[in-house]
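Section: Multi-chain targets

For targets with more than one molecule, the full set of components is provided together so that the structure can be written out for the assembly as a whole rather than chain by chain. Components appear in the order listed by the source. The example entry contains two components.
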Amino acid sequence: MLHVNGEAFEVRDAAVGESLLFVLRERLGLMGTKGACEQGECGSCTVLIDEQLVCSCLVLAAGAQRQRITTIEGIATETPTDVQRALVDAGAVQCGFCTPGLVVAAHSLLERSPRPSESEIREELSGNVCRCTGYGRIIDAVQRVAVSRASAREVGL
Amino acid sequence: MSVVVATSLADAVAALAAQPHSTVLAGGTDVMVDLNAHHAQLEHVVLVNRVPELCTWRFADGWLEIGAGVTWAQVQRELSRWVPALAEAARTVGSPQIRHAATIGGNLGTCSPAGDGLPVLAALDAVVHLVSSAGERALPVGEFMVGPKRTALRAGELITRVVVPVTTGFQGYAKVGVRNAMVIAVASAALVVDEGTVRLALGSVGPTVLRCPQAEQFATDHLSTGMSDAEVARFAELARDAARPIDDHRATAAYRRHAVGVLAARLMQRAITRGRAS
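Its structure, encoded as tokens over all components, is:
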């Protein structure tokens, strides 16, 4: 039994050595979480477990029972989030493969640090590899969100 | 393949007693890589990241006891005032995703020559505590680390905690890799100055982490009078001499030997500057 995005899922027919990434995609059909390196290097499989940012490819699914798992589907529901809109506006989405992991990581970063510096953004997103953009536009997008959330707070929205 | 999800230390010890050749899985950042690549065929796995006794740390009587399941994110966030060099090393472990999962016990258990925490633990004269159904024992980290990915851990034994003295002098960690983040050390060094005694440990330049007795003695003899640039250079030379590097796909032995001397000198300069300031 896995608790994903606030729902309980019975996982059937899984082999005991399967990674959380594999179970999310192949057993539960949650395709937003991407898989690439399966070594924890690329961050495309990033999810939150009990609010902690981790690579789902390095989590043994059998051991993730009774923990709160949040995938990109749990963060971006019907309408795009501010982070997603900013990534589009800044031109930070090209092939898009790294984007779900980046969105999860960026949301987590902004929760913990509402006004991150550029070096903080670079360090906090260092586990998410993007081969298209060169990162400049991604950092730009995160900064845009930080600014717009701050001004929203100022006017009491 | 069988998996035991241990929820207490007693559970974990019992599971290891039942299957002494089990693979202990904590953060998964080493074991899962092998499993995903089908390099490892694991028969029995004991998962220990839900064992509360392993996931806490405490400070008592000048010693810091760090549970084997404490993650590098915790070390980075919570332990910098007690063991600043270990927190510095923590910050260079993988990425935020890796640091939230990977543990100090896993660093010891894997015992890679490049493990970022290991030179710091060696320079701090850390003691590794182990438990099995036969009882507990403790080993100095230098005896625990036997070779590349080889430790003194016996079948059925579990790392429970690592104990380090809290020192008041300078301590620092420095590392060279091919990029700033998400990188395995090509050479690394940890320097600890404890009541006028200097301890230096090197990573990625030998089969396991190396201490440098001659460099340490030289620096201990000269640090109190303030070291000249020539003396720092001599210290770095003695550090280079202590290295036993190899050529591999990450770097040549010659580069590693050079780099580790630069790191040793850089750390010593920081220690001297800190000494002048205080």
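The first helix of chain B runs from residue 9 to 18.
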